[in-house]
Amino acid sequence: MSFAKINPDLSYWQKQSKPLFSDLIWNLPERKTGNVVVVGGNSQGFSAPVRIAEFMKKNLPFSCISLLLPDSLRGKLPTFENVELLPATESGSFAKSATLNNFVSHADASLLIGDFSRNSATAIALGQAIQSATDSHPLLITRDGVELLATEAKNWLERPQTFVVASMAQIQKLFQAVYYPRMVLLSQPLIPVIETLHKFTLSYPVTLVTFHQNNIIVAHSGNIVTTALVDTSYSPISLWSGQLASKILALNFYNPSHALEATSAAVLY
User: Fold this and answer.
1) pLDDT of residue 81
2) 147, 170 in Cβ contact below 8 A?
3) By CB distance 3.0 to 4.6 Å, which of 163, 179, 219, 225 could disulfide with 197?
4) How many whole angstroms separate alpha carbon 212 and alpha carbon 8?
5) Which residue from 151, 111, 160 is spatially nearest to 127, judged by alpha carbons?
6) Interval 156-181: pLDDT, tens
């Protein structure tokens, strides 16, 4: 792979304090449509998948939201609509299964929300499920799913319609996993980080969302949009709850081929 040169004039960088792409929010349909799967949980934790699936049902215009959990949680859950319990490993997280692959391949979009155990078998299972999705299928990976799937990054970073909401430390792990020659560091000022994300997303089709120096950063196809956290409804903690990730998935599902714009609009949605 050849690596893109950095554009020194920063003309690829936009800042938004008010929505730059508010028209995309109006493209959200009034009539619900789209079948989405939310994947997460293990025998020791499932609060984030349940909480975010409920948030999506109440706030986003998907017609069907299926929550996929490992069957190690059988008997531990209250009653929810559209909950599917899938084969689990002995440690209680997702195991390889045709059922998991089928759910992802037949859905219109997928959100890997986290609460996964750090289990190599689960990383392989989720990696196979990702491969079963079509290229037009929006896939969003966030929270501890990013770390779990870092070992598989060389496969899914090349995939179109892939979105990652990750901390700077998690972005570092992705870069290391694909032996990327530049690093993003927590100690760096904002501009060097933006320059590196610009270059990385010219090399890979993924859309990256991260947080640094009090700014939410969206990077896609070499272009960057930053939003000061103070101009959003998020805190440094709520940013990682999964709500932003679910909005990003929705805006991109309903506005295909506008990854930078839809993701940036989701930040202020």
Assistant:
1) 78
2) yes
3) 219
4) 20
5) 151
6) 999 999 999 999 999 999 999 999 99
Question: Is 113 in contact with 38 (CB distance < 8 Å)?
Answer: yes
Give tens-digit pLDDT for 197-253: 999 999 999 999 999 999 999 999 999 999 999 999 999 999 999 999 999 999 999
* DSSP-derived secondary structure for 101-157: HHHHHHSSEEEEEE---S-HHHHHHHHHHHHHS-TTS-EEEETHHHHHGGGGHHHHT
> Which neighbouring-strand residues pair with 83?
67
pLDDT in tens, 238-257: 999 999 999 999 999 999 99
For the chain, the residue count is: 269
Q: How far is CA 117 from CA 33, 144, 148, 181, in A?
A: 32, 8, 8, 29
The pTM of the full predicted model, rounded to 2 decimals, is: 0.94
For residue 37, list its beta bridge partners.
66, 110
CA distances from 61 to 29, 32, 64, 170, 209 (A): 7, 5, 9, 30, 22
- As a whole number of angstroms, the distance between CA 39 and CA 133 comes to 14
* Strands, sheet with 162-165, edge to edge from the N-terminal-most edge strand: 13-15, 223-228, 215-220, 207-212, 162-165, 139-142, 109-114, 35-40, 64-70, 83-86
How many whole angstroms separate alpha carbon 74 and alpha carbon 98?
19
